[in-house]
Amino acid sequence: MKGTIIRLQGGFYDVMTETKQEIRCRARGNFRNRNISPVVGDDVEIQDQKDGTGYILAVDERSNHLVRPPIANIDQAFLLFSVKEPAFSYHLLDRFLVLIESKQIHPIIVLTKMDLLNEDEMEAIEQAASLYRSIGYDVIETSTEKGSGVEAIRDLFEAKTSVFAGQTGVGKSSLLNAVAPELELATGKISKSLGRGKHTTRHVTLIQLGGGLVADTPGFSSLEFPQELEAEELRWCFPEFVERHDDCKFRGCAHVNEPGCAVKAAVESGEIASTRYDNYVTFMEEINDRQRRY
Ligand SMILES: Nc1nc2c(ncn2[C@@H]2O[C@H](COP(=O)(O)OP(=O)(O)OP(=O)(O)O)[C@@H](O)[C@H]2O)c(=O)[nH]1
Ligand SMILES: [Mg+2]
Ligand SMILES: [Zn+2]
């Protein structure tokens, strides 16, 4: 029988079968020895014991796999950023976009807690939103206080497997509750002293919602690039750089010190945002430093 892992709990894998039954499974011993650790989102072959339990016999090949949050086979990632509490950061957004782009997963940027902004702050956030829209990203502005943007989010779930990801306290669980109040997911207050959330959600869980599957995930407090991400790959993770790559004088242009670089020219003329370019250079240095260390 075929199914999808929707939850990992206390050494068990909860598997949703094609007939929408939940079966609590253990992994077969031999399977553990082969060093495969199944994660949420994995499509699996199970042996149904007909008593609500079963065994995982095999894990299908993954179309993609994120380490943090640990999940496989995603069609799209909702990247949640609060505009306040915790504060919005261009750096963190670009970092997250690189991670998702490098896995060739479709990102959707979600700005949360829009209700907390005063007029001046709103203007700054609208500038950020239009920058990312101009690159081609979807940006959805939401507030669970006002109920805004909730419909727009729900409409994107159909027939897809989605993941909600973001720092702790940005409002992932709150937004899912706004989409479907019956979920009653636990939410947590922001720590006043730390200025961030308190890791309220502890496990990745796939939920059936809006005709698709959506994962609520534990928030992170920092975001490191995966070991396998190489400096040379970075240039392909910035769509507005990719668009201009053919206009660079040198074919393998890294857009740093090369003459005749179309990307640098676009930064000079203001067509590419300097925040994006500066983050690109910072990330490149970070990855190069890491490569030197190992
Ligand atoms: N004002 C306002 N507060 C919000 C909004 N969305 C969430 N919050 C608050 O932000 C806090 C954190 O929300 P959670 O939903 O627990 O955040 P999370 O991203 O799930 O956090 P973790 O599970 O720790 O990763 C709670 O106090 C929410 O009430 C919003 O749109 N406006
Ligand atoms: Mg949560
Ligand atoms: Zn270039």
From TrEMBL:
Main location: cytoplasm
UniProt KW keywords: Cytoplasm, GTP-binding, Hydrolase, Metal-binding, Nucleotide-binding, Ribosome biogenesis, RNA-binding, rRNA-binding, Zinc
A Pfam cross-reference name: RsgA_N
Gene3D superfamilies named among the record's database cross-references: Nucleic acid-binding proteins, P-loop containing nucleotide triphosphate hydrolases, Probable gtpase engc, domain 3
Enzyme class: hydrolase
Binding site residues for GTP: 112-115, 166-174
Enzyme Commission no: 3.6.1.-
Ranges where the EngC GTPase domain occurs: 72-221
Residue positions binding Zn(2+): 248, 253, 255, 261
Endpoints of the signal sequence: none
Named cofactor requirement(s): Zn(2+)
All residue ranges annotated as the CP-type G domain in the record: 63-223
Source species, domain of life: Bacteria
Cofactor note: Binds 1 zinc ion per subunit.
Compartments where located: Cytoplasm
Summary of subunit composition and partner proteins: Monomer. Associates with 30S ribosomal subunit, binds 16S rRNA.
Family statement: Belongs to the TRAFAC class YlqF/YawG GTPase family. RsgA subfamily.
Biological role stated in the UniProt entry: One of several proteins that assist in the late maturation steps of the functional core of the 30S ribosomal subunit. Helps release RbfA from mature subunits. May play a role in the assembly of ribosomal proteins into the subunit. Circularly permuted GTPase that catalyzes slow GTP hydrolysis, GTPase activity is stimulated by the 30S ribosomal subunit.
Protein name: Small ribosomal subunit biogenesis GTPase RsgA
